[in-house]
Structures are given as C-alpha cells and as structure tokens.
Specification:
The complex is a heterodimer of chains A (113) and B (114). With 113 residues, chain A is mostly beta strands. Chain A has no helices and eleven strands. Chain B has 114 residues and is mostly beta strands. Chain B has no helices and eleven strands. The chains are: A mainly beta (113), B mainly beta (114). The interface between A and B is medium-sized, with 22 and 26 residues.
Chain lengths: 113, 114
C-alpha cells in the first residue's frame, strides 16, 4: 500500500519568512495530493491540492509543487503570518485505492510575530 | 452548506461503557470515512463507506468497534465496551466517490474514557 513520509515534524519561522514542508510517497500510481491545515480543536481543512497532470499550483501565498519522477511534493507558504500557525498534513491517493487518502505524519508550523 | 456535522463534540465516559459517535455527511456526497487521531499514531483511517456500503474496515482496531451507515445522510461509530486506550479525537469525513477526491472533515468528537 501507499506510504507517505512528511518532514519536518516541527517548523518555526519568523513572521514574513517562507515555510516549506516536504512529503514523499511510495506508490507510483498515486495521482492526487491534497494538503490540509488543522487548527487547534478543529478538523483538518483542505488548503490546496494538486493532481499528477500538473507540476505546480498556486493560490495566493500558498503553492504546491509535484515531482512525479522523484515521488515527492512540497507545500510552500510565503510571507507567513501568525494565523498560519497550525498543523499541516500532506496526503496521497490513487485510483487503485478508490478515494482513500494516505496521510503524512503532520508538520507543526509556528510563526513567531 | 453546513459541512460535515458530528455529535457529540465531547464525550467523557467510564471504562466498559458503550459510546456512540454520530456523523452527518455533506449532502450529495456518497463516500464517508471515519478516522481516529492521537498524538502517537496520527490520523488513522478506521473504515470507509461508499454508497452506504462498507468498503474497507481494515483499520477498525478490534471487535469492540463497529460502524453503520443506514442511509446516505447518517453514520454511527460505536465502541462497546470502551477502554481508556480508545481516548482520541474521532473525525468523520465525506467526499464524492469518482476516484481520488477531496475529503471534507467534520469538527471531530473528543472522547475521553476514564
């Protein structure tokens, strides 16, 4: 089955700096890669996703890149703000798995004012 | 849209008691997922329904756990008897079923078994 590794497990940045979180996956058939943000006491919320037919996707300060050859994908947050502080999860899915997602272990991002 | 609705939001019970968690998926979604989240094990998929039918329950820890989906708008996760190690946050999520798709999570039920 699919295995998703996520690094780092914690990340501390200064407000205004950029943050990068990286994930690797094992199943070459995976073709859907969402990123979720989980704030304290809440459920994970989708912030951006990418499918295997594109290499990069942007939404304002957030971008995701995908390298299918190397089987890794990354989340980039620019101009970080204190409200970006949360736990971020990457995930992967393929048609072989129906629509089940395999999640990474999570990254706790702390943005210091 | 109200999003995925879960109840109760918090549950405190004593070891040995039956616990029932409830979920209402987003209207029109036909896949439903139950997850458990702990610090030690992260997000674990317990069971997955498609069109009200259980598709994969390999993540259900043991026979003490059971899940049902009697119709497209309601699902339950039951633990009987509950144990302290079941203490966790339980999430329900729903999605469309046409292949890999976004899952929308509910707010979760925080369960504490004493």
């Amino acid at each position: 089955g699919e295995n998703v590794e996520q690094h780092p497990s914690t990340l501390s940045v200064q407000e205004g700096d950029s943050a990068v979180i990286k994930c690797t996956y094992s199943d070459s058939a995976s073709n859907y890669f969402p990123w979720y943000k989980q704030e304290l006491g809440k459920g994970p919320q989708l912030i951006i996703d990418i499918r295997s037919n594109v290499g990069e996707k942007k939404d304002q300060r957030i971008a995701v890149t995908l390298n299918k050859t190397a089987k890794h994908f990354s989340l980039h947050i620019t101009e970080t703000q204190p409200e970006d502080s949360a736990v971020y999860f990457c995930a992967a899915s393929s048609y072989n798995a129906g629509n089940m997602l395999t999640f990474g272990g999570g990254t706790r991002l702390m943005v210091k004012p | 849209d109200a999003g995925v609705i879960q109840s109760p939001r918090h549950e405190v019970t004593e070891m040995g008691q039956e616990v029932t968690l409830r979920c209402k998926p987003i209207s029109g979604h036909n896949s439903l997922f139950w997850y458990r989240q702990t610090m030690m094990r992260g997000l674990e998929l317990l069971i997955y329904f498609n069109n009200n039918v259980p598709i994969d329950d390999s993540g259900m820890p043991e026979d003490r756990f059971s899940a049902k989906m009697p119709n497209a708008s309601f699902s339950t996760l039951k633990i009987q008897p509950s144990e302290p190690r079941d203490s966790a946050v339980y999430f329900c999520a729903s999605s469309f079923s046409s292949g890999p798709e976004t899952q929308y999570f509910g707010p979760g039920t925080r369960l504490l078994v004493l």
